[in-house]
Write a structure and sequence with these properties.
alpha/beta; about 15% strand; about 210 residues
Length: about 210
């Protein structure tokens, strides 16, 4: 991503001087495991010439090695960040879209609290996708493919992806036989075969038509 044509750059050129928070999620499609939401705010006076920012992109476009190398750099440069898991039960109760938007609200509020600025006008939330966060008292804009257009959304997508992948590796040890370390909960043929043989685990989403 070229940081000089990022969404953040556009907001600054239009005169917005407050905090820009980028939100993204991973794990909407799996049959098992949480969805994970992250929110990232980079400094207002971001160094546009720092070559690190050119490394940021949609997490799906990066190799696992690159994602893992970028995570500590994001954490070092961010003014604040938050990563939140939405449990399978919460997904079942709310549906996946509303659960992810609810998670973005929680993650954004955690970052806003960490930045310790009392005025709502000091924040604008950049949301990946075509839906903004409902019932939220902060200005926001949704961006389709925002993780390829915004530095902070891209950073959020990377944090969320690495965090969730690590969690699914841990679940693979807890619930062997489903291949979670490899499929990270997505409905591969091998995962569906394991479900047919072993039945669902406590981390499977019942609302996703998991069959025993």
């Amino acid at each position: 991503m070229d940081p000089h044509i990022s969404i953040e750059r556009e907001f600054r050129s239009q005169g917005f001087e407050g905090w820009l928070l980028g939100c993204d999620e991973v794990g909407r499609g799996p049959l098992a495991g949480p969805a994970t939401v992250a929110c990232v705010a980079f400094p207002i006076d971001i160094d546009w010439h720092d070559p690190f920012y050119a490394l940021l992109d949609d997490s799906k476009k990066l190799t696992e090695k690159k994602r893992r190398a970028i995570v500590p750099e994001i954490e070092l440069r961010a003014a604040a960040f938050s990563v939140i898991d939405i449990t399978p039960r919460e997904i079942d109760e709310r549906n996946i879209l509303q659960a992810c938007l609810w998670g973005m609200k929680r993650a954004s509020l955690a970052v806003i609290s960490a930045l310790n600025s009392p005025e709502a006008k000091d924040f604008h939330i950049l949301v990946d996708g075509n839906k903004t966060i409902p019932n939220f008292d902060y200005s926001q804009t949704a961006f389709i493919k925002g993780d390829a257009r915004s530095l902070s959304i891209a950073a959020a997508s990377i944090l969320a992806k690495v965090h969730r992948d690590d969690l699914m590796v841990a679940y693979d040890r807890q619930y062997p036989g489903y291949g979670f370390a490899k499929n990270v909960g997505y409905p591969t043929a091998a995962h569906r075969a394991a479900l047919a043989e072993l039945g669902p685990t406590p981390i499977h989403r019942q609302s996703f038509h998991v069959k025993k």
